[in-house]
Amino acid sequence: MDERHLSKRLQAVADWVPYNARVADIGSDHAYLPAALLLNGRIKYAVAGEVAKGPFANEEVEITKLQLQDSLKPRLADGLDAIQPDDHIDTIVIAGMGGSLIEEILDRGQDKLKSVKRLVLQPNIGEFRLRQWLMNHRFQIMHEELLKDDGHRYEIIVAQPSVCPVRYNQRELLFGPLLLEQQGPLFKEKWQSEAGRLQQALTQMAAAKSTDTDRQQQLQAKLDLIEEVIDHDNRK
Ligand code: SAM
């Protein structure tokens, strides 16, 4: 992968960056995503934020090699601290991390979100809590996507600020409000695999005569919910 050949996952993330957006890609590593958007003429300005020195050095090398110094700014910073007022960022991309880390980054950088019109997020896990954070901070989910790249399933969540309160029920938080509506083939695959994992955990707990009934009930409730949704889908 490089800036001219994004992975299927990163390309799917890039596809949700609006034309002419001013983008902050947080945890950018090689800065491939903003570099690709700039080289394609889709955007004119971006910040590539990185907290770790190694990936930050990768960004600097990449930006110099591509001569993108005027339009792509590498910043060694934690989360949204990479964004400065003069950047006039309207779109934030955070991809390839756990949902709880993405949530933490958004939560700590709330002052930087005031002028943001779109969040393009690609959590590797922990989507429930991330959706909960979005809901609690009035971000409406406008697009959700499940895709498979190199044998791994990925979820993309695109959200925009809402003036009205945003409400999702437990089911929508778990499955994704839009993914739940669509219920595509990867949705079924994902939740069948999760149901198998939960079933296995419950069987092991029973065999070990576990006394952690709270945990067992929690897992069973989640399994019941998944089976209800998958079975409903099978009847369609
Ligand atoms: N975004 C790229 C992608 O999706 O391919 C790179 C993902 S890479 C797995 C995650 C990157 O996020 C790492 O380079 C890591 O250093 C960076 N990162 C982790 N926590 C961060 C934080 N709080 N602020 C900025 N970058 C962070």
From TrEMBL:
The family database entries (Pfam families) matched by this protein are listed as: TrmK (PF04816)
Q: Cross-referenced SUPFAM superfamilies, in alphabetical order?
A: S-adenosyl-L-methionine-dependent methyltransferases
Provide the GO MF annotations for this entry: tRNA (adenine(22)-N1)-methyltransferase activity
Q: Which domain of life is it from?
A: Bacteria
Q: Which residues form a coiled coil?
A: none
List the InterPro entries.
SAM-dependent_MTases_sf (IPR029063), TrmK (IPR006901)
PANTHER family, sorted: TRNA (ADENINE(22)-N(1))-METHYLTRANSFERASE
Q: What is this protein called?
A: tRNA (Adenine(22)-N(1))-methyltransferase TrmK
Origin organism is Candidatus Limosilactobacillus merdigallinarum
